[in-house]
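Thread title: Can someone regenerate the structure for this chain?

I was given the following input by a collaborator and told the matching structure tokens would be attached. They weren't. Posting the sequence so someone can regenerate them.
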Amino acid sequence: MQTQPTSTRRRSVVVPTLIAVIALVLTVVAVVASRPDPSAAKPGAADRSSAGSGAEDPLAQLPRRTPGDPLAVGDPDAPVVMVSYSEFQCPFCGKFARDTEPGLIEKYVEDGTLRIEWRDFPYLGEESTTAALAGRAAALQGKFWEFHDAVYAEQRPVNGGVLTEEYLASLARDAGLDGDRLVEDMARPELAEAVRADFAEGQALGVTGTPAFIVNGQPIIGAQPAEVFEQAIENAADAAR
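Best answer:
Regenerated them for you:
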């Protein structure tokens, strides 16, 4: 793959980032206006927001903090939660998963500072949805993250006809899962509904592509350098103390 000049890369990242952040802000305003009962949000969640406005922030309410959630890693009571809208075909999601996420887990998840919650956002096509269903099926075996790592380690061209049930089952087997059970579970209607719900949630917030992250209410768009995530996490942790 050819590498763009630095100045071109910066322009190509900054402009979509600004557009995405503006869209998120406008959506937040609309959501706030439409909420009849903000007090129904999770207690204390607004206190963790980095917005500092004192008002209930829908972006800060996104973390689910469900104990035992197989699509999350980290303590449910961690002071910082990073919600990650991602999909398995996206090359930038793959770059984040391979190059940045392991370091964040080692530095912040393992010491209890950070929790990462996955959200399915399969916007690139049918193969994305198939992979998302396979990820949900892997989660039923308690091995979503093993499947996650396997898919991104062997990432294929977008919509190249590779992400079939058979191929995903083979990857799952190599990662220690039951491949036959994975394929069988992929047909469960509740998994399709869960994928649709995540996708709809992201769309309602103004997410248009992946990866998109919300760190205690702060949007981070794209596979940014590790330093960007580290600064956001540390700022959110300081604000939560």
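Residues 79-241 form a domain with the Glutaredoxin fold (CATH 3.40.30.10).
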